[in-house]
Amino acid sequence: MINIEIGVGSAHEQVDDGVVLPVLKGGVFTASGENLRNMQTEIMDDVLKTRDIWGNQGEYYPLYRLQGTASRSTMLLAAGDEKKLTLHVLRSLSAKLTKDLSKQGVQQAACYLAELPVKGASVADKVQAIGEGAYLGLYTFNHHQTTKKESTNGLQCLRIMLTSDDAGKEENAALVKAKAVALGTIFARNLGNEPGNICTPEWLGEQALSLSHPKLNVTVMDKEDIEEAGFTALLAVNQGSAKEPRFIVLNYQGGKKDDAPVALVGKGLTFDAGGISIKPSAAMDEMKFDMCGSAAVLGIFKAITDMNLPINVLGVIPSTENLLGAAAYKPGDVITSYQGTTIEVLNTDAEGRVILCDALAYAVEQKPCEIIDFATLTGACVVALGGQATGLLGTGEAVKEGLKKSGRHTHDRVWELPLFEEYQEQIDSKIADIKNTGGREAGTITAACFLSRFVGDVPWAHLDIAGTAWNMKGTDISPVGGATGAGVRLVVDYLSRKIEQA
Ligand code: BES
Ligand code: MN
Ligand code: ZN
């Protein structure tokens, strides 16, 4: 894992193999680049004037062994239009930078990206974004490739350069936070990327147990425990699978003893074939990612325990496969949930809401101050929002507003869909209390309507991460075809702000 530090000092004095200076559209340097230009006027002026790449965010112009500098190479990094700079641009640039430098065999680099002006952002915010980008950009998942060994020539150390006035406590804390958030995100990605034959409910339980902190208690219920507790909807979905289900409960007591916890509930479907209402085979392999809701919850627990956040958090994860064994639940079946509500199963592929309803009802019993659930719940959400935003629905106005704010800040974005009362009738059943599908229209909303029947009066936000949990095309911060860790940056930021406001 790369080592990231804060550094101070001018660009020409750095002995690192690589020194990275951002250049804005129009060929404008930030302070350190400008200082170097003053020393190297001819070469630098020439490069700035004759190359017009500075608007092409992420492009480089390398200057090797620039006279008067101590470093092997001075990389000019195009940062684009100053007006379009955001924390996420910094995060993406940093991810791209670390990947590229790594490929070029640069082992230590000093980067002056934090000098870029971002409206409304503190230096600490910028350090955090750059740090996150570096950790996340370098992420790979290749341990199943027997010939791909981790390269030792890659980037080992990145120094985020600040002025000595800026390099203080807050900036160092931001770096610690970036690392915790990134490691939480990476934990979630690793769980998500692991295939269904390895990432089984049992394995997921073991991963939860691997988290360790003096104030964290993890319990994993096996099938017998689940039967005894009466999580009957989870058991119904599990009927078609040869593998046992698990019900995972995490209790983090970082806050005051009697403070009500925030409950985080995550869908842990380790493989979703659809059940008897089987899915088409095209891209069915992607349904190994159907446990990314639970991965987000575990990633958040990893981050908040690393950060010792002073808050109480409850985690609840129902986990099973959805397969087509001889005992599988069938369309038309009526099942009774843990809460007592009866459910007419019209489509066995709408299994996420079925396992989540038991987990939500259990969470409500623990008297949380609010509930946030994470689920790759509906294909309809992918149609509505694509991969750019997580669907947000729910009854808790304050928690929803808080999540929107954190979404904007972290670029782990959310977009709200309505939960108007009128949608509820779409899940009325003729023979049971509710049915598990609401028809073709408003599929993401009717799935949330189903969940809403199980949260009582607890303020609740539902995050449908079906479109954001993995990314087939990849982004600067997340590799092609892999889990993204969606929800981790979002909710760690949300919880941090909640603590500040308390
Ligand atoms: N896990 C899927 C949702 C999904 C589909 C997520 C594609 C990401 C990409 C979920 O269990 C499911 O199958 N939902 C059904 C519900 C329908 C039968 C009401 C869906 O969206 O098609
Ligand atoms: Mn399904
Ligand atoms: Zn599913």
Brief digest:
35% of the residues lie in helices and 21% in strands.
Key terms:
single chain; 502 residues; Leucine Aminopeptidase, subunit E, domain 1; Aminopeptidase; 2 domains; nine-stranded mixed sheet; seven-stranded mixed sheet; 21% strand; binds ligand BES; binds manganese (II) ion; binds zinc ion
3D architecture notes:
This protein folds into 2 domains: 3-167, Leucine Aminopeptidase, subunit E, domain 1; 181-501, Zn peptidases (Aminopeptidase). Helix 9 links the parallel strand 11 (268-272) and strand 12. The longest helix is centred in the middle third of the chain and has 25 residues, at 169-193. The chain has 502 residues and is an alpha/beta fold. The model has no long low-confidence stretch (mean pLDDT 97). It is built from 14 helices and 21 strands. Helices cover 35% and strands 21% of the residues. The chain is elongated, with a radius of gyration of 24 Å. Bound molecules: ligand BES, manganese (II) ion and zinc ion. Ligand BES is lined by residues 272, 290, 347, 349-352, 376-380, 382, 437, 443, 466.
Shape: elongated
**What's the name of the CATH homologous superfamily of the largest domain?**
Zn peptidases
The helicity comes to 25-40%
User: Structural class from helices and strands?
Assistant: alpha/beta
Number of helices: 14
> What's the CATH class label of the largest domain?
Alpha Beta
Query: Beta-strand level of the residues, as a percent range?
Result: 15-25%
**N-to-C terminal Cα separation, in Å?**
35 Å
Per CATH, what is the topology of the largest domain?
A: Aminopeptidase
Radius of gyration: 24 Å
The number of domains: 2
Overall pLDDT score: 97
Number of strands: 21
**Could you name the ranges where pLDDT drops below 50 across 5 or more consecutive residues?**
none
CATH architecture of the largest domain: 3-Layer(aba) Sandwich
Largest β-sheet summary = 9 strands, mixed
Bound molecules: ligand BES, manganese (II) ion, zinc ion
